[in-house]
Design goal:
By secondary structure, the protein is α+β, with helices and mostly antiparallel strands. The chain has 2 domains: 2-118, Rossmann fold, CATH 3.40.50.10330; 126-299, Tumour Suppressor Smad4 (Sandwich), CATH 2.60.200.40. It has helices at residues 10-28, 43-53, 66-76, 96-101, 107-115, 145-153, 157-164, 170-182, 241-251; strands at residues 2-6, 33-37, 58-64, 84-90, 120-123, 126-130, 133-137, 140-144, 186-192, 196-203, 205-209, 231-236, 262-267, 269-282, 285-297, 302-305. Strands 6, 7, 8, 9, 10, 11, 12, 13, 14 and 15 form a 10-stranded antiparallel β-sheet that branches. Helix 3 links the parallel strand 3 (58-64) and strand 4. Helix 2 (43-53) crosses helix 3 (66-76) and helix 6 (145-153) packs across helix 8. The two termini are 19 Å apart. One of its GO terms (biological process) is phospholipid biosynthetic process.
């Protein structure tokens, strides 16, 4: 059985157009499927939970962007999800989930792979926790400057404008320039696996990565492995704003790691303490402002069609 959760408003309405093409292909094959359209924020999580709660072995396909995929996984984790195989047809502007797993962006090819998968991989699900609140993620969770960019992008008219011209991922670059001038770095302490503590008197951001990319293609952790049970982190510490401005473009090819002030680490549990509450994101979705944040992976992996 196939279930589809579609965000028709992704990429300024491009999601509906892509779904129309997918539906045509499914109907040609006379396949049994059910399709559900998201109508509001959080709706994809509700739909995913309802589908998983049926306990029927099935393929659940997300037709949307990274935010829709994040909502779906946050719905799945509310119940048993080991009987679910996740498929993905990217229609967003950032598409870091597809990029990180090497998924095709060609809709026709994506449908063929979902209908006759040649490769299904197990993938970690990340957990971001602050006090008693949790949010799950597939791509990354970040605190500080990178999260401030995500927070603004969620409500940016610029994103809608650029999406109309197929330039949505430039949203993050444009907002990053603005936020760079406004953002004040903050002292941060990081503890890995409840042992080693690193102190950063001046920290711009900590990106906790499950996949290699976030922010529309920034390869913050080139060695991140989505099935190793670890959170890989990129810390931007003692850098001037000019250095940050120089460093960010190199992150798209993973060369930022050579900058003094950039630190790459990994651990099963990453604990972050900041001097003041900082913005936090999970897969680009807001997780509020936090002064403490713990990152780890969930006990159960999820099956994802990757080829």
């Amino acid at each position: 059985m196939y279930y589809f959760i579609i965000n028709p408003r992704s990429r300024s309405g491009k999601g509906q157009e892509i779904w129309d093409n997918v539906k045509k292909r499914l109907d040609e094959e006379n396949l049994e499927y059910e399709a559900y359209f998201t109508q509001r924020q959080g709706h994809a999580a509700e739909l995913a939970h309802q589908i998983a709660a049926l306990s029927i072995p099935c393929t659940l396909v997300v037709v949307g962007g990274d935010g829709t995929a994040n909502e779906v996984v946050n719905g799945l984790v509310k119940t048993v999800y080991t009987h679910i195989t996740l498929g993905y047809i990217p229609t967003g502007s950032g598409n870091d989930f597809a990029r990180g797993l090497g998924l095709t962006k060609d809709t026709k090819k994506a449908v063929e792979q979902i209908l006759a998968p040649a490769c299904i991989e197990k993938m970690d699900i990340g957990i971001a926790q602050s006090d008693k609140e949790k949010r799950y993620f597939l791509i990354s969770a970040g605190i500080g400057f990178d999260a401030s960019i995500c927070h603004e992008a969620l409500h940016s008219g610029l994103k809608d404008l650029l999406n109309r011209y197929g330039l949505g991922k430039l949203t993050y670059a444009a907002i990053a320039l603005k936020q760079l001038f406004l953002y004040r770095p903050c002292p941060v302490d990081i503890r890995l696996d409840k042992k080693r503590i690193s102190r950063f008197p001046r920290c711009f951001f900590v990106a906790g990565m499950n996949l290699k990319y976030e922010g529309g293609g920034c390869k913050f952790c080139p060695d991140a492995d989505h099935s190793d049970g670890k959170i890989h982190i990129c810390v931007a510490g003692k850098l001037s704003k000019l250095k940050i401005l120089t460093m960010l473009p190199t992150a798209f090819i993973g060369k930022h790691i050579w900058f003094k002030g950039i630190q790459i680490e990994q651990g099963h549990v990453v604990e972050i303490i900041s001097r003041r509450p900082l913005p936090v994101h999970c897969d680009g979705e807001s997780f509020g402002f936090r002064s403490s944040l713990s990152l780890r992976t969930a006990p159960e992996q999820i099956s994802v069609i990757t080829g």
